[in-house]
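OP here, attaching both records as promised.
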Amino acid sequence: MLCLLALAWLVLVNLMSQIFSQVPITSQDKQSLLTRVKNIFYRGFYYMLSLVFAAISMALILLTYKMLKL
């Protein structure tokens, strides 16, 4: 069971490092309207992904605590 837990942590850290290495820049006034809207949409998507990863991290912390408590 501890191997699955370690695998879950490794997958989570790997996904986070791969996904959040390319966060789009904040929109600037010199860009076109379409580019600014696209960047706002992408940043919102990354924000939702960060909330999902935070929830998964909390679940893994609880699972780790329960498994190591045994």
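Record two, same layout:
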Amino acid sequence: MPASLDQATQMEALSDLLLRRHEAALWREVFLGSTPRPVCFEEATLTLVCTDAPCHSWRQAELAKLAARFGGWCESVGARSALLCFSQPQLAVRAALLLQKIGADLQVRSAVLAGRCKVAGIDVDGELRHFVLASQEGLAEAALQRVAPGVVEIAPETYEKLDALLAEETGGALVMTEFDDTEAATQTSITLVPTRSAAMSTFAGLGGC
């Protein structure tokens, strides 16, 4: 594929992403601004956490700080989901579990998915921001739709990257892994065990309507 055509295809994918998941002002700055904003594209192996945390009182600034705590970034936040990006799968799992532990409730859903991603880098107000394009972002969104409330689900390929490290990251949680006939993992889910105070609070709430 000619370089110019590849660049045009990538810019079109970036345009679509910004229109779907980001503020309109950013799209205008990148594509209509009087000063051209250089955009660089690269491939990177990332682990994505797609979560419905915004539905559980998590704000964009909080999600950005939580991702940064584990060396990642908050790529986008919508009304019903957010996408966090990390360099290592174990860091992504730590962030997903922390979303559960310190949230207003234990019903946050998260899907953890690792893979090769096409990433666009844009200088926005002196800060280099990164945006994950196309397929991996879409796969993460689709994976979230299959996750039950209160569960962190890890994709099979991501489970293989974690393997022995998983036990270290999930102490005190219920971990369930399903395997196929070849003993390859097909699904791994992590559910936090409610504390006694949380369980009592839920029980007490059953009585009053």
